[in-house]
UniProtKB/TrEMBL annotation, chains A, B, C:
One of its GO terms (cellular component) is mitochondrial matrix. Homotrimer. It is an enzyme of class 5 (isomerase). PANTHER family: ENOYL-COA DELTA ISOMERASE 1, MITOCHONDRIAL (PTHR11941:SF45), ENOYL-COA HYDRATASE-RELATED (PTHR11941). One of its GO terms (molecular function) is delta(3)-delta(2)-enoyl-CoA isomerase activity. This is Enoyl-CoA delta isomerase 1, mitochondrial. Signal peptide: none annotated. It is found in: Mitochondrion matrix. The keyword Transit peptide applies. Pathway: Lipid metabolism; fatty acid beta-oxidation. The keyword Acetylation applies.
Amino acid sequence: SVPTGVLPLCHRPPEWYRAPRQPPSLLLTPCRAFSNKKIMVELDESSGVATMTFKSPPVNSLSLDFLTEFCISLEKLENNRACRGVIITSAIPKIFSSGLDITEMCGKSTEHYAEFWRTVQETWLKLYSSNMVTLAAVNGSSPAGGCLLALSCDYRIMVENPKFSIGLNETQLGIVAPFWFKDTFVNVVGHRIAERSLQLGSLHPAPEALKLGIVDELVPEEKLQEKTRAVMAQWLALPDHARQLTKAMMRKTVLDRFIAHREEDIQNFISFTSKESIQKSLRMYMEMLKKKKS
Amino acid sequence: SVPTGVLPLCHRPPEWYRAPRQPPSLLLTPCRAFSNKKIMVELDESSGVATMTFKSPPVNSLSLDFLTEFCISLEKLENNRACRGVIITSAIPKIFSSGLDITEMCGKSTEHYAEFWRTVQETWLKLYSSNMVTLAAVNGSSPAGGCLLALSCDYRIMVENPKFSIGLNETQLGIVAPFWFKDTFVNVVGHRIAERSLQLGSLHPAPEALKLGIVDELVPEEKLQEKTRAVMAQWLALPDHARQLTKAMMRKTVLDRFIAHREEDIQNFISFTSKESIQKSLRMYMEMLKKKKS
Amino acid sequence: SVPTGVLPLCHRPPEWYRAPRQPPSLLLTPCRAFSNKKIMVELDESSGVATMTFKSPPVNSLSLDFLTEFCISLEKLENNRACRGVIITSAIPKIFSSGLDITEMCGKSTEHYAEFWRTVQETWLKLYSSNMVTLAAVNGSSPAGGCLLALSCDYRIMVENPKFSIGLNETQLGIVAPFWFKDTFVNVVGHRIAERSLQLGSLHPAPEALKLGIVDELVPEEKLQEKTRAVMAQWLALPDHARQLTKAMMRKTVLDRFIAHREEDIQNFISFTSKESIQKSLRMYMEMLKKKKS
């Protein structure tokens, strides 16, 4: 059977997170907007739709803290019966998310690499197996891990600006997307497009991303919110139970493969990341980013 | 190895059906058109092409009787060496088939659910693994089980009327397409289109169905017969043996998975269908259909 | 783990081939163009790109000798650190490769069939799992085994002449593409297009091949070389190690399945090919080819 976000986090969650599941009556208690450091979460109880807005300058990079907050927020919504759908989007202009925070992978301890990677896994697992309707409103560039977040949703709407690009560009950094990034990508675009795009580490401008099927539609930036709500309403028109079982059936093969190789994947990440050649690659890439900025 | 329609039916077939396979010479004896209650079967011995025309008013719904007749007719053609290809089509205006007969799933005994589902399975198994060239001439709307019949053929031609739609819309009824409906669909349209279409329970108008790859081509209604014959001739130009082995190879994974989980799938169907919440969903849907009609 | 061209050949290679891997310094020694009987191999050391040009009149058919030479040449390049990419193309006008040499499959001993098939397998395995960037410059028609060579590369550029066609047309000859031809094809074009094309044994003119995704782009014949070099440069811009691991990950499932069924596949080939009905089919096809020529 398909896991649906009930697996334990690898680091200490706040007290409310560990609280036993509340009875239905309490869960229907209005849940006001709450904002932690990096993600603003708002729930519109009339529609049952939550919005998670990334607001972690400068580029919404997926640090350990960001991912931990993402997991906790998503879990909280998952357990809230008043919430049936989630939109993920960004408050940072031109950037949806820049992907995994490379500083978490550079010059740190083995224990840190393990904790970081476990949280990356957990984030994907919770999002990809969510019972809620998940929708990515991609309002900026979205490389690597940022692209993975979008690919893990049920539907992707991107702003039609050709300066915004999206893709799994890991090879450009001298690293390799893990197998479950690949599986998620193949489920969206098919084997051939994934093989070519992953080998070349391509970042596809929005119009090309649409053509390849990486995103489902493009809209002008000013129409993004309206369009996102309309699409969400369309998905919420279906009975939750039938839709959830169908989603679980579609994603079962990829989720099962991940679960079976989860610890192995952490060990692979640690040994790969610990290599001096990889550390050098990542340092060079960070230097390049710094120079680009200045 | 791939089964090719030799598995026993779950209910009593007529005497001729249980007769031992006839020697080749007898099999070449002309087989005149025969019509049972719900499906007209005609075999053109000069071309080796049979046509199975659904004629079960009002909407060719796939009842236990209809499916039993379908299985028996297909098996008979499969064993007739004079027959190399089958066209399935409808004699009911605007409807190809409305899919599984919901009355077979409502307020019946566990034994009835088991018999019904076994026959649904058998129908798909015989059609999907047929050694003959199978062609769907979709001359009307084709939701759910009707769509499955079309998807199980080698090729699908649909009338270009945008009022005719096709799709696996089970979620709209609060139920879930079984895994082998899903596998058949994914083999035709790929994972992404299947995931989205199944979750939304979409019924696609003919032009959209073509774009998504659910059908292979559209023709004006008056050209349907001519086009169907031309396509069939193209497929029959290939040596049977090589074509059959190739087809079996292509469909082996999906057929093997089905065979391995066949009994489990029946148990799932029974326990799901027996739930009061599902019974309620189905009754509401039938009420809605009745109101629509009047 | 994925094999990468280190598996032994099934027949005796020349002395240099069995030599132990040379130390890096020696491997960087310039490797001049060398030409055996059927394939011209040139290595441009400044770019690290080798070109393997098929020059076996009349139609570059894949005989045991041709395939043996192909394996040896590819292995030599694979072990040469100065070589990072390979282009395969043809020196014969209008023909890329006509596919497997049918005379190797007609009226020969069981031992010969086994040796021939093992070499066909080895050729595909080496090419499909190559660590180098592999690029097919398809400058002529490319049926059956010729198509397989192109499909096994990382990228396919075809001359836009609609008289040139490409496809796995085995069923037209009364034979069946083996499962790993099919798997390679499905990875490129997806399940539906492969199912239809393989059953019909279609040879697709260049424009149709582009539309179906069998090739990645079309160019005028006079631009082929320039375009091929530009594409190769794009692929070589990626760090080898990350690109190689990504490629191995993408092709792992198909390679693993092949390895698991390799000997079984040889036995199948022998027993199928030894059948009198198949021998007759192949003789008839050869007669037809002879008549066509004269």
